[in-house]
Amino acid sequence: MDCGIATILTQGKQLHFEILVEDVSGKAALDVLVPKIIGSDNTFRVISYNGIGHIQKNMKSKTEANKRILLDQLPRLLQGACKTFIKTNYPGALVVVCDLDDKCLKAFREELLGVLNSCNPKPKAVFCIAVEEVEAWFLGDLPAIKRAYPNAKDKELRKYKNDSICGIGERLADALFAGGAEQLKATHGVGAEKSKWAITITPHMDVETNKSPSFCYFRDKLRSLSYST
């Protein structure tokens, strides 16, 4: 984490959020959703990485920084954020957003907190985990999906239980794409479609009524950080 946020931090806002996500589709979603959550009194920057990676057992970054693998770089990122906020003397918070995928939520959260607690000094940082992936947050707002994709299959959308582990990308593809996930995989793949979903659905989302528990945790955590400054 460099001091490139210095210009942002001198704008006289209440709190600055540095938000780290594991891919470009997550950034596309949060660039739209975060202002709806924190309002205009705070600043933010969303930074995307090239995958999630793994936390190293020795708490040291294993891969080179330019490879931009989120969890591999987490110890360095936490320390860098702390130094930046101390140097600028400005209230800031680091927010790390990760997909749960098929991991155990409790164990994964404890692993992340272990890295944070090993930092000295410790930055103001929180971990928000999308269960199963960020696309689950879209499915927490079915009216937004229908506004973005009027022809979305209601039957497929109603099958989904919020924050269930079910192959969320494929579930959303079955609802939105002609021929479903199998046809999408045969053309350009579900992964390639995720940024399009993020750009198309998020402008219609209502952050106050979302039914995804992990999204509500993310929303409420950002607000609690802002109110605590």
Fold and architecture overview:
Residues 1-10 have low confidence and may be disordered. The longest helix is centred in the first third of the chain and has 15 residues, at 24-38. With 229 residues, the chain is an alpha/beta fold. It has 2 domains: 6-131 and 212-227, 3-Layer(aba) Sandwich (Rossmann fold); 135-204, no CATH class. Helix 2 packs parallel to helix 10 and helix 8 crosses helix 9 (180-187). The chain contains 11 helices and 4 strands, in the order αβαβαβαβααααααα. Strands 2-1-3-4 form a 4-stranded parallel sheet, sandwiched between helices.
What's the CATH C level of the largest domain?
Alpha Beta
Assign the CATH topology of the largest domain. Rossmann fold
Low-confidence stretches: 1-10
Structural class: alpha/beta
Query: Can you list the strand order of the major beta sheet?
Result: 2-1-3-4
Helix content: 40-55%
List the helices and strands and how they pair.
Blueprint: H1 6-9, E1 16-21, H2 24-38, E2 43-48, H3 74-88, E3 92-99, H4 105-117, E4 125-130, H5 135-139, H6 142-148, H7 154-159, H8 168-176, H9 180-187, H10 190-201, H11 213-227
Parallel strand pairs: 1-2, 1-3, 3-4
Helix pairs in contact: 2-10, 8-9
In short:
With 229 residues, the chain is α/β, with parallel strands linked by helices. It is 48% helix and 11% strand.
Keywords:
229 residues; alpha/beta; Rossmann fold; four-stranded parallel β-sheet; 48% helix; globular; disordered N terminus
